[in-house]
Design goal:
mainly alpha; Serine Threonine Protein Phosphatase 5, Tetratricopeptide repeat
Length: about 300
């Protein structure tokens, strides 16, 4: 009987001890959060007074105070500290590479949150605009879309990825990502812009006639879009480059009706016609001027 009572007392004591430890841990977490909060407030004041380096050191001290793997208030303060560190490094201390590391930490530790979405976006913009690491920037933008495919503006991020691959000189991947936007976001208003990226990539890859066809598709699929007349002129330029004068002339003429600068289109059309006139052998009618090679074959 005494053994049983002793065993019960031991269990009860252990439970009390565990509860006490839990309370102590909670108090310690709360205390660290409060301490970090004060440190971050101080860092904010230092930054506002122009002491960015001192502010950054204070933020680092707050992160040490908080530690990793925290929850509750401490987790919130840790996010605040990581964001402040990234801001100071990027905007005040001109250390974009170090700022990128903090954006990556936010994305990893707070995945699925608005903070992670913002961090991923800023990482991509920083890599693109400041570090000029276009392949890494494109990868960062794709990471946003993969992590937040249904987030408002995901189609815009997909377009950014396609354009950034174009900046990187990766024409095939630019086309792939432009097509991904059209496939996964068929109702997006950015469809014409994505199709133009595909056309530009084909042109830069030395495929002028395919580029002309892709750009002509902008007007065929989205005839009332602002991009349509612009794409038609670019299609005409690509067709003229490829020696397809008939397609070039048709594209320029179609663009005239809605182009914001019709005079420039008329000038392009006039140049094309002068070139055709100068290169067409004598003895061919004006109607055959745009296809005199075919006309000559027919005559033979």
């Amino acid at each position: 009987m005494l053994d049983r009572l002793g065993s019960t007392a031991t269990v009860a004591f252990r439970l009390i001890r565990l509860r006490a430890l839990a309370v102590a841990a909670s108090i310690a977490v709360f205390a660290s959060a409060c301490g970090a909060h004060r440190q971050l407030d101080g860092a904010r004041d230092l930054a506002l007074s122009g002491h960015a380096q001192a502010a950054y050191l204070s933020v680092k001290a707050a992160l040490i105070t908080l530690g990793e793997g925290v929850s509750g208030d401490a987790r919130f303060e840790r996010l605040r500290a990581l964001q402040m560190a990234a801001d100071l490094l990027e905007l005040d201390l001109a250390r974009p590479g170090d700022a990128a590391a903090y954006f990556r930490r936010i994305a990893m530790e707070y995945g699925g949150t608005e903070a992670a979405f913002s961090a991923r976006m800023r990482l991509g913009d920083l890599l693109h605009d400041k570090l000029k690491d276009f392949p890494a920037a494109a990868g960062a933008y794709l990471g946003v879309v993969e992590a937040f495919p249904n987030h408002a503006g995901a189609d815009e991020v997909q377009l950014k990825a396609a354009r950034t691959f174009l900046d990187a000189g990766n024409h095939d991947q630019a086309i792939c990502e432009a097509e991904a936007l059209l496939l996964h976001y068929p109702q997006s208003s950015l469809g014409p812009a994505a199709q133009m990226v595909a056309g530009h990539a084909l042109h830069l890859a030395g495929k002028a006639i395919l580029a002309a066809e892709a750009l002509h598709d902008v007007a065929a699929r989205w005839p009332s879009s602002p991009e349509a007349p612009i794409a038609l002129v670019e299609a005409g330029d690509c067709a003229a480059e490829a020696g397809e004068e008939m397609l070039a002339e048709r594209s320029y003429i179609e663009a005239l009706a809605n182009h914001p600068a019709p005079r420039t289109v008329q000038e392009s059309l006039a140049r094309l016609r002068r070139r055709v006139a100068q290169t067409t052998p004598q003895g061919f009618a004006r109607a055959d001027a745009f296809d005199y090679r075919g006309a000559r074959r027919s005559a033979n």
